[in-house]
Amino acid sequence: MALKRVYQDRKYYNRELETLLQLSHPNIVRLNYFSVDEKTEHGCYLNLFFELGDVSFEQLIAQKARFSEREVRGFFLQGLAALKYLESMNIVHRDIKPANILLVGGRAIKICDFGSAKRVSKNEYNSTYICSRYYRAPENILGIVDYDCRIDVWSMGLSFLELFVFSPVFSGESNKDQLSKILEVTSVSETCRIKHNLHACRSIGIENYLKPIVSDPGLVFLFEHSIVFERDRRLQASKLIEYESAFEPGAEDTQKFAGAACM
């Protein structure tokens, strides 16, 4: 079992515990039980006991562990299944990254660390200074406060692509530098560029970035439709799963599904 121990000020409730008690999904780490100790008038220590994962993807990337495209595609779909579940509850994880994705038994993946998770609603103000910078979605960098579950889709796409390149895809030294690195790879409409006062630069396009790295059509589709600068063009986890199924062996009219996903 894995233990997470945090100090809990009595003035505040623990959002992570509140979130975890609502969750039950095979691709989300299970909270076995919790306890409190060292109580004082100001607070206490909260102990969260989780099922144990074998290894994080951050560790696997550091070890330069090799996975086939088929394996990564399977990992990605499991991760999306977890995000689809969270999406159905309007819960945003807000810190998806390789360190928070665990591999169990060599095949199953589980999302962990819900310390930043929050239930969101439309037009609600949310902090944009969330998620580790390398995996932070463009809308968070731009200061858009009414974001949704698609910020997790962006982060997950980058996390699984890292299994092939063994380092963060975008590793800016500041938010401004991070945005510049993203714009060098992802395409942006002129409308979006003007709206957010983005500097003009020549983007290679995510599809061209992927060509020497990934060839599996289904996996390419997942990356191309998750690592998308504009939120409204980025697919939700549920849609990614739906359209990706067209790439299974024997599926017909693949191009029709791929085209529909871009609408």
UniProtKB/TrEMBL annotation:
Q: Does the keyword Transferase apply?
A: yes
Which InterPro entries does this one have?
GSK-3 (IPR050591), Kinase-like_dom_sf (IPR011009), Prot_kinase_dom (IPR000719), Ser/Thr_kinase_AS (IPR008271)
Q: Which UniProt keywords apply?
A: ATP-binding, Kinase, Nucleotide-binding, Serine/threonine-protein kinase, Transferase
Output one GO MF annotation.
Answer: protein serine/threonine kinase activity
**Got a GO cellular component term for this one?**
nucleus
- Example GO biological process: cell differentiation
UniProt domain Protein kinase: residue ranges: 1-247
Annotated family: Belongs to the protein kinase superfamily. CMGC Ser/Thr protein kinase family. GSK-3 subfamily.
What is the name of this protein? Protein kinase domain-containing protein
Report the source organism.
Menopon gallinae (poultry shaft louse)
Q: What is the lineage of its organism?
A: Eukaryota, Metazoa, Ecdysozoa, Arthropoda, Hexapoda
